[in-house]
Amino acid sequence: MKTIELKNTAGGTTKNVDTQKRIVTGYLSTFGNIDLDGDIMEKGAFTKTLAERKDQIFFLNQHNWQQPLSKFAVLEEDAKGLYFETNPIPDTTYGDDVLKLYDAGVLDQHSIGFKTIVGEYNNKTDLRTIKEVKLYEGSVVTMAANPQAVLIGVKGYTLEQVQDKEKQIIKAFKNGTFTDETFVLLEIALKELSLQAYELGKTDSLEVKEPIIITLNQLEPSIADILKTFNL
Predict the structure, then answer these.
(1) pTM, whole model, 2 decimals?
(2) Do 38 and 72 have their domain in common?
(3) Per the domain annotation, does 146 fall within a domain?
């Protein structure tokens, strides 16, 4: 039995978010890029699945089937990749949080949940070209999406990009009014980002330092007070 794969393919980024109309547009996947798993998504890989089951494909929050955000008004291949436009995201607490995090720049990456139907391996390059998939869902991701990479949205980021993401999350803490669950995920993301920054920093310096783990006490007092109310 083929397993469901979660893949944050290169270029699965946000194009636009209309917080008033509650509509998100962007790409779930792009063609021709070699991702960190050594896979290349080929143009046409989604053609059959879109023709057969387009209305059964969902837009989820963090690959969580208990938090569906919408279905797709537009889901189609173009020259770049798998382009999407969502229907309006319903007025739910987690939907509100997602739109706020998009607006704050914390969420800006997308991932797909799929089964590979046809894939060809190249023994010389150790690369796999994915020629056909069965697509189940596309998700907005940054935190806790893939058990192999908690921060699926920052795999492949530079040190500067990781540090910028940390700043965005801290700013969201200051200005945001989120659900308890989202605040918890934001703290997890901060800790994972600091570990990511440490790993990246080791390659930039001969001096190996201890990882910087962000704790509640190291956050600004107002943020720490908020988080302590959630019994973290």
Answers:
(1) 0.71
(2) yes
(3) no
Distance CA 184, CA 197 (A): 20
Residue range of the domain that includes 63: 5-141
Beta strand 127-141 pairing with 58-61:
parallel
pLDDT digits (tens, 9 = 90+) for 27-58: 998 898 887 778 899 999 999 999 999 999 99
DSSP H/E element including 47: helix 47-53
SS3 content of the chain, % helix, strand, coil (to 5): 35, 35, 35
Q: How many CA atoms lie within 13 A of 53 on its CB side?
A: 11
Q: Are the CB atoms for 52 and 64 separated by under 8 Å?
A: no
CB 75 within 8 A of CB 54: yes
For residues 136 and 181, membership in a common domain is answered with: no
The tally of domains found in the chain comes to 2
Residues 126 and 219 in one domain: no
Asked whether residue 25 is domain-assigned, the answer is yes
**Of the candidates 94, 115, 141, which is a domain's last residue?**
141
pLDDT digits 0-9 by tens, 95-150: 999 999 888 888 878 889 999 999 999 999 899 999 999 999 999 887 433 333 33
| Averaged pLDDT, 2-19 | 71
* Alpha carbons 8 and 142: distance in angstroms, whole number: 10
